[in-house]
Design goal:
transcription cis-regulatory region binding (chains A, B), Peripla_BP/Lac1_sug-bd_dom (chains A, B), 6-stranded parallel β-sheet, alpha/beta, Rossmann fold, 12 helices, 3 domains, 434 Repressor (Amino-terminal Domain), DNA-binding, homodimer, 4-stranded parallel β-sheet, 12 strands
DNA sequence: GTGAAAGCGCTAACAA
DNA sequence: TTGTTAGCGCTTTCAC
């Protein structure tokens, strides 16, 4: 037996209950304008008594303001985006803006759909992962007239503002560090990269920098789906069967790297002397491992935080603000899987 | 240079562009009512040409319908809720409902706030984790008059419908299995449980069932914060220093369990003969480990899926439907850390 | 098959 | 400090 019969309460109900005009009730509930302490308390008491919950739909329509920020990301199930979200939440907690999340599953068509859905709620801003979007998506974003921040990746042309790292450069830096440490027979294991542009850019930067040192990737393999940890084990076993003389494996993310690390330790292989390893992302998980996998911090928290701050700033000062570009500097953490460190 | 000057487009703009009345434009855009193919195409073309995105705020206010389902959960950063969300999304994908997520951080006051915010958007339904809520929260839920499904836990009195497992029983079952396998000196490691009711219930069921077998928990420790994997290592080391003769450790979640498992393997301890281990949740991660930790599937995906299905069914048939209770049966996976299995 | 009028519940702007 | 009036952009209802 739920209370279904009674229509939702309105301002009018509070007004009648308190004997104060709707307008003044509205002011009290929003802490807007001057209201006498007496009236204020009478209204608050009445609202509480009848259990009034404001209708934001009506409020948003009337005020033409929605305190929502659309956040559009590919996934929530790996470790990377939750941390971005934390940064966004922390920044927005200081404002009256609220994040609303949409998930694209790395599919451009889904992104377009989610974006359309989100924009139809007229949010105050949009944060979206990546810098590659369909023409239709870009058009929607531009036409929306609201602040847009693309995050994670700065290698490309943003619609408006952008906060991220250069994944191409991240790949290069890792390659340089590997070469510098004297590794020569280098393998790469990663996700299928048709839709993961950031992984692709890292790989491109990686091979480029190796080429500069006269080295070619000795072997490589790509996966999709499944438990990353398990995939890391399998692929590591595979690649070493195929190419036993590898002395370094670069993984496109930390989870498959950890899978590989655990497998190699089990096999009694000397890490980092016989084989060196590195991943990417700087996930917190690594801290609890027997050996800490070398990795590169992707600045996820900061990216989220700064993106949200840009939105918040734009919302405050309605006037024309120039698009911002923030390029963060990821740093290598050599952990215990890198020779000479 | 963003296009800020031009106000967002309205139905009226599409109407003018296409030479069709606002009303008919509205019908086309919603696929409602009979519209001639000619008119339909003319409208669609016009909408696309000028880049119109409907205003759902206005639509929702006018129609008194919002295709949103509020999902309120404690956290997104562990492995459990993302999987619940996947179940919810999968179920809602077959409807025109959309999930909107709010995060409480396990804090009742935050839950109350988030719930209030969410309800003020007048969603079509609410799914919220746990069955313990403040009186104010319960009152809001009841007063909202919309379908409510509490998830994860069935040990208590729901506001409306509920889908979950009995955590008390889960703890009992694990205790029984441990006793049956002949373990005698049993330790417990878990989170501080003041606010994590489900962990508390598992612990209560666990100690209860042990008591029935004449066994008391030999040692225990609780943590909060930090990397679960690292905490699992530390606490495992600690508890064995204090109580070296333990022959089983029950962890309140898989992540700290894995930390413990990796630590003990490093120490050369024979698992499961010298010490047996078990966690809780059945996270996918376990598959990639050298030894698979014993665990108990918490039916997370199914819980999400069924909860969403209940909401969807309720939204369809407006008429009074009885509150549903669905109690799922978790199963033990003995993995490689349980003697005699 | 199409259009005109009314109003969803709230807030901006102005009046008192 | 408080109240009144007029919409916000759409959908419902009813008329054509």
């Amino acid at each position: 037996m739920t209370a279904k019969d009674n229509r939702p309460l309105t301002l009018r109900d509070v007004s009648e209950e308190s004997g104060v005009s709707e307008m003044t009730v509205s002011r009290v509930l929003r802490n807007r304008g001057d209201v006498s302490a007496t009236t204020r308390e009478r209204v608050l008491a009445a609202a509480k008594r009848i259990g009034y919950v404001p209708n934001k739909i009506a409020g948003a329509l009337a005020s033409q303001r929605v305190n929502l920020v659309a956040v559009i990301i590919p996934s929530m199930s790996n470790m990377v985006f939750p941390e971005v979200m934390t940064g966004i939440s922390d920044a927005l907690d200081e404002t009256d803006l609220q994040p609303v999340v949409g998930i694209t599953g790395y599919q451009p068509e889904k992104e377009e759909k989610v974006l359309y859905e989100m924009l139809s709620w007229r949010p105050s801003g949009v944060i979206l992962a990546g810098i590659e979007h369909s023409d239709a998506s870009r058009a929607m974003l531009r036409a929306s007239g609201i602040p847009v921040v693309e995050i994670m990746d700065v290698d490309g042309t943003p619609v408006d503002s952008v906060v991220g790292i250069s994944h191409r450069r991240a790949g290069q830096q890792m390659a340089e560090a590997i070469v510098e440490s004297g590794y020569k027979r280098i393998g790469f294991l990663g996700t299928k990269m048709l839709l993961d542009h950031r992984a692709r850019k890292r790989f491109e930067g990686f091979t480029q920098a190796l080429a500069k040192a006269g080295i070619e990737v000795a072997d490589q393999e790509f996966y999709s789906g499944g438990s990353a940890l398990a995939k890391g084990r399998e692929m590591t076993a595979d690649i070493l069967k195929r190419t036993p003389d590898l002395d370094f494996i670069y993984y496109s993310n930390d989870m498959i790297g950890v899978g590989g690390l655990l497998y190699l330790q089990e096999q009694g292989i000397d890490i980092p002397n016989q084989i060196g390893l590195a991943g990417f992302n700087g996930v917190n998980l690594l801290k609890g491992l027997p050996k800490r996998l070398a990795t590169m911090d992707a600045c996820r928290y900061d990216i989220g935080k700064q993106a949200a701050e840009i939105i918040a700033a734009r919302v405050d000062q309605e006037d024309e603000v120039e698009p911002t570009t923030v390029m963060l500097e990821p740093t290598i953490d050599f952990g215990d899987t890198f020779r000479n460190h």
